[in-house]
Design brief:
single chain; 447 residues; alpha+beta; OB fold (Dihydrolipoamide Acetyltransferase, E2P); BirA Bifunctional Protein, domain 2; 2 domains; five-stranded mixed beta barrel; 14 helices; 27% strand; binds 4-amino-1,4-dioxobutan-2-aminium adenosine-5'-monophosphate; binds magnesium ion
């Protein structure tokens, strides 16, 4: 019996007869020869059905196969650098085929489909080559995130998803009924991370987070995955050094391990290769000047379609501002010291200049916008209590959080990196909805 292998391992079986189990993507050819493009989840390759090698009966069987038919193929692995598929360079000379099911008429065809049509069929769309490549890059990104943090002394501590209080502002809360008590789906694990650093020094949480975003954009999901590292004895300046090491490692690991996937996605990887420390740092003040200078000149940078709008000091940047700012650098750029008024309640004000806070957003190049939000945290319990009141948050719900500052408070900092924004950037896709298997979008919760 031929060994059963996966397409990703086929290159190790040159000249041998093996069995591969998968699905037919496309059947082409005529006369004595047919080409079957086959995927098995680990890769995509071509099997060649040549009538003299396969025999008349099986050759006729091949001609009846439809897209997505499930098949078991046995044949000889041939190495040919020109062979199509990923990873490239192998094909199969078919000697036998068993049909598990001839698929019904498959709704997704090589022609262009509208995105709503595809989202309605997300459970099938995932089978397409692009979606396969994106999902694999995502898995590599997640592994790189965990590897880097685990190797740098961060302890994974899971934080709750059912929470009694807002972590990131009250406008994007998903409210739920917790046995008669109001509760919320977690917007962040940060507040718990801050408790955890006093026990473990450096921690991270990693999981889904929820935001009831009220507008449709290509950068916002209702449910997204975020990794949030938090460190004791860490000032903003130290935090930025951690962030640039971390992001560079993720990008370089994806480049190293996802060559075939990024090639399939036709990603220009030259820009990603430049993502190595140090990253440029600019203040919010400087960023406002840059934006307003560009606005005065009517500068348009893609994917912006309009000139970048002017901004008044104190306002938060929108996507067009972030796109313009990032376009001025060939690496991700930190924008630090945002106005206190546009940021969350827990950020440490800049000494001597309380109208700005010790925050930093990291803006990705090529129009992908903010991939990280982070800051130094308020470490004084009385200042924190005042900030909670100023944001009209219910004091009692934050008692435990303030109490952390009464027993050995230290300067501490942390950040959150959005997985889907990072994956969208690395894969070069234009919308976050393809960076997660089942996107939760405004007006869509199926399939
Ligand atoms: O800037 P944000 O809101 O920061 C926090 O949640 C902090 N508690 C993190 C921390 O300091 N521990 O979100 C962090 C990142 C953003 O930079 C973005 O990448 C992503 O999370 N993000 C979203 N991604 C997809 N859809 C959304 N609606 C997102 N909102 C934020
Ligand atoms: Mg943010």
């Amino acid at each position: 019996m031929a060994p059963i292998i996966r397409i990703s391992d086929a290159k190790d079986y040159a000249g041998q007869i093996v069995t591969v189990r998968g699905w037919l993507q496309r059947l082409t050819g005529k006369g004595k020869i047919n080409f079957l493009r086959v995927r098995d989840g680990s890769g995509i390759f071509q099997a060649v059905a040549f009538r003299p090698n396969l025999g008349d009966e099986k050759f006729e069987l091949v001609t009846t196969l439809t897209t997505e038919s499930s098949i078991i193929l046995t044949g000889e692995i041939k190495v040919d650098p020109r062979a199509p598929g990923v990873p490239g360079g192998v094909e199969m000379d078919l000697r036998d085929i068993e049909v598990v099911q001839v698929a019904g008429e498959y709704p997704i065809t090589p022609k262009e489909h509208g995105v709503e049509f595809l989202l309605d069929r997300r459970h099938l769309w995932l089978r397409s080559n692009h979606q396969w490549a994106i999902a694999r890059v995502r898995a590599v990104v997640i592994r790189a995130i965990r590897d880097w943090l685990d190797d740098h002394g961060f302890l994974l501590v899971d934080t709750p998803l059912l929470t009694p209080a807002a972590g990131e502002g009250t406008t994007t809360l998903f409210k739920i009924d917790y046995h008669g008590e109001p509760a919320f789906l977690a917007q962040t694990g940060q507040l718990y991370n801050e408790a955890n650093i006093f026990a473990f020094g450096r921690v991270y949480c990693f999981g889904p987070t929820f935001r009831a975003e009220k507008s449709k954009t290509r950068r916002h999901l209702q449910e997204f995955w975020m990794v949030e590292p938090e460190l004791a004895f860490c000032k903003l300046e130290d935090l930025l050094e951690i962030e640039e090491q971390f992001v560079s490692y993720i990008v370089q690991t994806a480049l190293e391990r996802c060559g075939p996937e990024l090639a399939l996605l036709e990603r220009d990887t030259s820009k990603l290769a430049q993502v190595v420390p140090p990253f440029p740092r600019i203040s919010y003040d400087r960023a406002v000047e840059m934006v307003n200078a560009a606005a005065a000149e009517g500068i348009i940078v893609p994917p912006n379609e309009e000139p970048v709008p002017a901004i008044e000091w104190g306002g938060d940047f929108g996507a067009p501002h972030e796109t313009y700012l990032a376009s001025q650098f060939d690496k991700p750029v930190f924008v630090t010291h945002y106005p206190t008024a546009v940021k969350a309640f827990y950020m440490e004000p800049e000494p001597g200049r309380p109208e700005v806070c010790r925050s930093a957003d990291l803006l990705a190049p090529e129009g992908y916008g903010e991939i990280i939000g982070g800051s130094e945290r308020m470490s004084d319990p009385d200042k924190l209590t005042a900030a909670i009141a100023k944001h009209n948050l219910p004091a009692q719900a934050y008692d435990w959080y303030v109490e952390l500052r009464r027993y050995g408070s230290v300067p501490h900092s942390g950040f959150g990196l959005g997985v889907e924004r990072t994956v969208a950037w690395i894969t070069g896709i234009s919308h976050l909805r393809e960076a997660i298997a089942y996107p939760r979008l405004l007006g869509r919760i199926t399939p």
